[in-house]
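Collaborator request, handled under Task 6.
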Amino acid sequence: MVHVVLRPRDGSVRLAPVVSLDGSPWMTYDTTLLDCRPSELRLLDTAASVSRQWTFWPADGLGDTLSGTDSLLTASFDTTGIFSFQLIAVDSNHCNDTIRRDSALWVFPTPEASFIWSPDHVSIHNPEVHFYNQSTPKGLSFRWLISQDQSGSSFDTLLDESPAYRWEVPVEAGDYPASLVAYWLHHGPDTLTITCTDTSTVPIAIVNTYLQFPNSVTPNGDGMNDRWVIVNLLEMGEYSMNELWIYDRFGALVYHVENIHRLSDFWDPNQTSSPDGTYYYRFSAKNNFGLVKRNGVTEVSR
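Structure tokens returned to the collaborator:
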């Protein structure tokens, strides 16, 4: 903002402006302002001016020139560059004065913080995630804030460009916020500097990957529970090497499959012409953490 006061002196107007950018405290008009894109500069004449003429323009002349005659001129823009302003004011005594400030505002580009991570869904068995920084441009500084809990009340701070992070076990299933703050240091005139920042925050999903084995199946064709489905086997893909056996109550094998990787691989009692009753299952699988074996009983009921 520019606060302009008209003071008659020796038959002429004397302008004594002060400036403020983005709500900062008032400063003298000859203060050089540095800002990050997007920026807003407000120019305000609070004196009893009869007329005024504001002009705000990019110093290199390559952008649009903004002008106005109201007491308040707001310059909002989403471009980078060096900007200048001028005010010509006339008071009731027809006295006038001009104030011009070249290279008053330096606006620098803001970085774009962005990242991806792997795996998309983190297992409570192995609550570790790898972050891959995709921020632009190159040469930025970074700070990661990884939530230790779902509330986001406490964080671990990481400074590597593309770090790995592991939550302490046991950990509950849910969404855990992760933030990347990108910093871009710019040098203005003389020894002035400004750091422009951007933050990207996403929830990292930690999911329950414990296998859940159904104790019943109802193959009545309603599209619900028609197959004997092991919950979380397909969702996470942690147990791609697996094997399933289904036996009837007399011990006869009615279904066998290796390496289940789609819904249709699970047992459908209608496809094996299996009547209602009690059946027994045996399941084994391998993942990075060892061998999983499970035996149990399930009921077929239409």
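The cover message to the collaborator said: "The longest helix spans residues 233-236. The first strand starts at residue 2 and ends at 4. Please let us know whether this matches your experimental observations."
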